[in-house]
Amino acid sequence: MTVSDAFLVQLPEAELARLASKWTVRNYQPHQFVISHGDRDSDVFFLLEGRARATLFSETGREVAYREIGPGDIFGELSGIDGLARSATIVALAPTRVARLSQAQFRDFVEHSPVFTWALLTYLSGSVRRMTNRVYEFSTLVVRKRLICELLRRAEGKRQEGGRALVDPAPTHFELASSISTHREAVSREMSALAKRKLIARRETTLVLLDLTALELLADKEPEDD
C-alpha cells in the first residue's frame, strides 16, 4: 500500500480534525508491541509516524509477517468491528507514533460519517484483494517469483525515471523471508542471483530495483513446479 492509498489520506481535513479530537496518541520504540495476538480489547489504531508490521509467531517462534504498516494506515479494525480477539501482533519497526480510538468512538464514526465508512470499505476491499493475491502466490509460485512479487509490492508508488525504484529502508533478508513464507537462506540465494543479473543493488540503507520492467516479467504469475 502506498502513502496515497493510506486510510487517513482518504479523509477530508474536517473529518481528520474530528477524528483527532477523539483519539489518544502514544509513542512506541522499535520492537515494542502495539497489539498482541489474542488480546481482547477492541480499540482501533492509526499509524501517524514511523513503521510497523503485522505478524504472527508459530509455537516454535518462527515469525510470519503479512503486512507492513506505514503512516496513515489503520489497524485493529477487525476487532473494532466484530469484538473478537486480536488476529495478529503489531510490532513497531522504528520510532512510531500511534493514535488510538475506542471501539465506541469507532462505531460512532462508522454509523454517522459516510465518508469515513466509505474509506473503511475501500480499505477492507483492498485488504481482501491483497490477501487473495498472496494466498495464490504462496500456493502456486516458487520462492524466486514470490520474492520478486514482494519486492515489487514494496516498490509500489516509488517508480522513478529510467524504470528504477528505491525501497528505503531496505528490508532485511529475514524480513523478506517471513513475508513470503520461506527461510532466510533461500532469500539470500535469490537476492544474490538478482544482484548478479543487475536487477537489484544495495546502496547503504536503500534497496534499488534497477529494472522494474524486467522484474515484472520475471514475476509472471504462471505457476511452476518447485
Largest β sheet strand count, sense and barrel closure: 4 strands, antiparallel
Beta-strand percent range: 15-25%
The count of β-strands is: 11
User: What characteristic shape results from the CA principal axes?
Assistant: globular
The whole-number mean of residue pLDDT values reads 91
Strand-and-helix sequence, N→C? HEEEEEEHEEHHHEHHEEH
What can you tell me about this protein's structure?
The longest helix is centred in the middle third of the chain and has 27 residues, at 114-140. The strands form 3 sheets. Strands 1-8-3-6 form a 4-stranded antiparallel sheet. It is built from 8 helices and 11 strands. 40% of the residues lie in helices and 22% in strands. β4 and β5 form a beta hairpin. The protein has helices at residues 13-20, 77-82, 103-112, 114-140, 143-154, 173-180, 184-196, 212-218, and strands at 24-28, 33-35, 44-49, 52-57, 63-69, 74-75, 89-92, 96-101, 165-167, 200-203, 206-209. By secondary structure, it is an alpha+beta fold.
